[in-house]
Amino acid sequence: MASTRDQDQKSFDKLKQICVPLLEKSQLVPQNVPVVLQLLSALEDILQHSESTLSANLASYVFFPLSTILRRNPLNNIPDQVMEKLLRALATLSSSWWWTGELEVWSQMFMLCSSIIGSLEGKGKGKGKDRSDETKEAAARCLFALLRERADSEAPPDAQESSAEQRLTNFLMRAHSTRFLPVIGQTVDSLLSTAKSPHLALQRLSLQLLDIIIGVYAPTSFIPTVLPGVVSTMTRIALASQESKRWANGEVVAATLVIIQKVVVLSIGDLVCIADGAIRSVVDLEDFAHFLSPQAESQPSMSVPYLVTRTSSWLRASASQLHIALNTLTPLVNHPTPSALIGLASMAKEILGTTLLTLAQSQHLLLSWLLSLSNSPYPPVADLASSSIVDLLSAVPSRHALLQTLTQIAKDSLSLLPRSIGSQADSRVEHITGQVEAICRLTQSPASKGLGLSSLSLGLNLLLGPSGGIERWGWTLLSVLEFRTPPVTMHHAPGAQLFIEADPMSAERITFPEVAFKNILLRSASDALARMFRALGQASGDNCLYAIEWFASTGRTSESRAAVTALWCASRLLEGVSGTCLDSEIQLSQQVPTYSKQLERFARAFARDIAELWTVESTETPNPPSHSLHDDSLSRTEFTKGLTVIRATTDIAEPRRFTLPDVSSQPLLHKTFCLHLLAISASILQAKFTPLLVHVLYPILHSVVSPTPHLSLTALATLTFVANATSYASPANLLFSHFDYALDAVSRRLGRRWLDVDATKVMVILVRLVGSDVVQKAGDVVEECFDRLDEYHGYEVLVEGLVEVLGEVIHAIENDEVHVQDVSKEDLLTPLKVQNLDSLLDWVSHRNDPQEEHDDTDYGPAPRQAWGDLAKEEGERTEEIEQENSPNEELLSPAQTLAKQMVSRSIYFLTHGSPIIRARILLLLKSATPVLSESALLPSVHQAWPFILNRLGHVGSFIGRRIWDDIWPRFATILTKLEAADKQSALARRGRGAVGTESVYTHSHRLYRSILKTMTAAVTGVHMQDSSGWEVILSFRRFLHREAHGELQACARELYTALRKGNEDAVWLALMATSGRLSGDVSFLKDAKWDIDDSLTLILGE
Questions:
Q1: What is the DSSP secondary-structure string of 1052-1101?
Q2: Can you say whether the dihedral through the CA atoms of 83, 89, 93, 95 is positive or negative?
Q3: Nearest CA to 562 among 550, 544, 577?
Q4: Separation of alpha carbons 502 and 116, rounded Å
């Protein structure tokens, strides 16, 4: 206690030094205003940094000089700076004075702050002084300190009344008095004006004061009086009507929505309206019995003319106007700040829960806000909106009405969706689809279990079931929703084939390519539409199968735009029912999927029906009936872009051109969405989908070989999806396990009864996808190909395709089989080399010996030696002949045996009339060469030798001489001409001794490269004459020059490496002499302009 007195004494000493001079200067004149400002600043500093709350006596002591200044000076004459500091000091005093101050003083300060905020502090009929925003902010802060509710823990020690609730009750009694109500009304009006101020601090304080006055101090009967003005002003502030180019501040919007919520609930809520008799509440049977009895409306009170009495007529008028005002707040659903969205969700929940009877027409609007906010990207907003809907449905009185409203919202949204799509209102489409998605998600939410939402589920089932709901909005939707045809880029190879060739493992991670809408431009709107259909399927479950069948049956009839759209809708609905999503690897349902038998039977029959579309020819008529072209029920909105064309003609009336609507078919997208349906069916059946592969594999593979990249990649993604759904590690494993299914399907489409020219391409991609494992199944493929070749050998397209299949099989065998080691060059030249000189020396030493005399007399068939020795010698000679004629045959592997069979049966097509087929046969033989051994390959080469001679002309045993006598001179002439032409070419390389051109795409560079590679092959495989070899060595030295193109240097080094194996001394002599390392008789070979040292080191290994 003593310490408190000491503290008060110290505070008194400090305050005395300021309050006494301030009291002396209470009469403001221009001379003492600076002194008063300094004193007020010092006083404010002491009050803000005081260690404890001022006692009641000290507060009264400080209040006296301040009130004296206000009494002795007209308010208009007090400068803004002085008034601002006075109000700040009063606001600080209010923290302790609120507990002990007199009610009259509280009223006076209330009116003072209100007059300053509203610039009404002047006397007479004229307007008051317009204060600055800072002064009004200080007044608002002082008024906030007077009106703020306090807790008992904030009371000062010397407070006589310890109950904050009792103190607040006293203030409320004064505020509810008849004399004070006009002050509250004027204060509310002033705060509505300052709430629109661009000064953000003043605006926030004004909104806080409006919240306190309306929620705490204003009487219930008074709030309907200010309802129109408050709602109108808050709506303009929330929508930023004065700043239409940008959104209002999020916290400001949240504060305005809280005020709207309170003023609506307190003025037009169910409880207050029932209490005033504006509406009747039916709780029990007795209330229902008196419901139809007439009720006398209460007469308005004449004692207080500015109060509004709640009557039924007033309620109808106010509810209608309030609904219009609330409807203007709909754009806030798209506000970018979470605080504003949270405020909107809280307001919608509170108004819905408290105005079920009075604002029944606004339930649709408020629920639509909560549904849209439940799709917000901000988790706090989405969680609050979802929990608000669940809480409202948990209340028994509001459940039935809200469920009916939700069902009606879903029905109206599906009816309005086609119109929004047709007008290209993407934001509207996104809003509508989001609402339907939220309703569907509500039925699946774990929080909604046990709330009795069966009527909502029945409403959704009615929209998708056979009771006529799907026909009402389905046809209209199909008439306006169109897809943009993907750009058609024709390739010789399918898009999926190019994808696989770039990366063989890419087939396991490919995703479905996207499809764009024609009349929905925003990506978010198209995604929202797809999510809506998935949510409908997920919410309805098996009850959605009728809608899926309806869309699918509409899509199977033709390939028109409407049919394509129908298949897309069926795909998305089936995705929702199955819990899968083709756009991502994440499933809609995180649990292990378990499907009903009805759904599995539907998916099994559905997959077969879709697969049969690849076997049925289109029966669609090219032009629709004439009466459908003028059907007004499916009218389209026309959009024109660009400039108006000015016609250079004298005709006044512009000629009208009749154009038919675009009814062209979209077969590409039709097959794309059919593949989607097959993939989704596989995800439903999983392992049970395996028996259907005999029907499904060919349509998928047929689409893989499509020349259109979009369809090809979609088919490859479908194949991957089916493999994953049926528990296969990769598409290759799936195809290998069911290779017979696929081969049988291809075989049936290569018969005379049913011929498909793309079947050979399907077989090619089948072999390529299976990879090296196809070797085990290649025998059937090869047999099928040769059977068809015998049958269709006269059809070039089919023969080319079948030969391509054989080439693919050979390629697989080549990758799988170990290559036979090539015979080295030294082995080929062994018979031509002299190993030793023993035989030569023996001949030289005995060349002059006398020859033995032989008896040339013919004695007839008489033996020249013993009979026994003759028989033995004959037997040895027979064995040698047999060994020479039948060498030891090596055992061939199954793959080599198959390759040998393919080679032997393919050589007859070397005489085919098509050069493409002959080239493919040559490539096939080339690929088979590394796989087969010499003993297995040479018989086929012997058999094909006449065809080779026919192509090469006079080759025979003189092929080596022909190459060096005929071909090499022509190459030498070409080299000479090219060297002369490069000197005159602008593309030639510049520099000392430069060779060739800079670009690798010029004719000279490509010709140089071809000549070098051809000569390398000739030197390697054909015996070379010494004279011709020396000419080759000298002719190609310039390509070893450092300034030559890198590719030509590499080719030249390969050539000299091959030459070195045949005649190492000649290569060493020529290159060493050219580099200047040798002198003497070979010095003439030196050429200083060629720097070949680097190539010389690589070739000779020095």
A1: HHHHHHHHHHH-HHHHHHHHHHHTT---STTGGG--TT---HHHHHHHHT
A2: positive
A3: 550
A4: 79
Q: Could you give the 3-state DSSP secondary structure of residue 997?
A: strand
As a whole number of angstroms, the distance between CA 68 and CA 89 comes to 14
Non-local CB neighbours of 171 within 8 Å, separated by 6+ positions: 103, 106, 147, 217
Average pLDDT over residues 612-628: 52
pLDDT of residue 1001 exceeding 80, the answer is no
Amino acid 532: pLDDT? 92
DSSP designation for 742: H
> By three-state DSSP, how is residue 1007 classified?
helix
149: which residues sit within 8 A by CB, 6+ positions away? 164, 168, 212, 216
Mean pLDDT taken over the chain: 77
Q: How far apart are CA 1033 and CA 1016, in angstroms?
A: 12
Q: Which residues contact 878 (CB under 8 A, 6 or more apart)?
A: none
* Placement of tokens 């390939």 in the chain: 559
Query: Quick check: helix, strand or coil at residue 834?
Result: coil
Closest by CA position to 1022, among listed 960, 945, 1084: 960
Measure the CA angle with vertex 568, ends 662 and 627; round to 5°: 35
Separation between Cα atoms, residue 549 and residue 609, nearest integer Å = 11
DSSP letter, residue 163: -
SS (H, E, C) 793-822: CCCHHHHHHHHHHHHHHHHHHHHHCCCCCC
Amino acid at 874: E
Partner residues linked to 988 by β-bridges: 997
CB atoms within 10 A of CB 63: 20
| 451-501 tens-digit pLDDT | 666 667 777 878 887 776 788 788 889 989 998 887 655 444 554 554 454
Residue type, 621: T
In this predicted model, what pLDDT tens digit does every residue of 654-684 receive, in sequence order? 444 433 344 467 888 999 999 999 999 999 9
Which DSSP symbol is given to 160? Answer: S
In the chain, what is the straight-line distance between the N-terminal and C-terminal CA atoms, in Å?
108
CB-based burial label for 406 (10 Å; 0-12, 13-18, 19+): buried
Residue whose C-alpha is closest to residue 1036's, from 1077, 1084, 1044: 1044
pLDDT at site 629: 34
Confidence (pLDDT) at 659 = 39
Report the distance separating Cα 716 and Cα 704, nearest Å. 6
The rounded distance, in Å, linking the Cα atoms of 55 and 667 is 89
Tell me the one-letter amino acid at 860. G
**pTM score:** 0.71
In three-state form (DSSP H/G/I as H, E/B as E, the rest C), the secondary structure along 382-443 is HHHHHHHHHHHHHCHHHHHHHHHHHHHHHHHHHHHHHHHHHCCCHHHHHHHHHHHHHHHHHH
DSSP state of 988: B
1019: number of Cβ within 10 Å: 25
Q: Which pLDDT belongs to residue 351? A: 93
CA-wise closest residue to 895 among 815, 784, 803:
815
pLDDT (tens digit per residue) in 393-403: 887 666 788 88
Q: Could you tell me the two tokens for 131? A: 């204060």
Tens-place pLDDT, residues 700-743: 988 888 888 888 889 889 998 999 888 888 888 888 888 888 88
Dist. CA 678–CA 610, nearest whole Å: 7
Secondary-structure breakdown of the chain: helix, strand, coil percentages, each rounded to the nearest 5: 70, 0, 30
Cα angle 626-632-634, degrees, rounded to a multiple of 5? 95
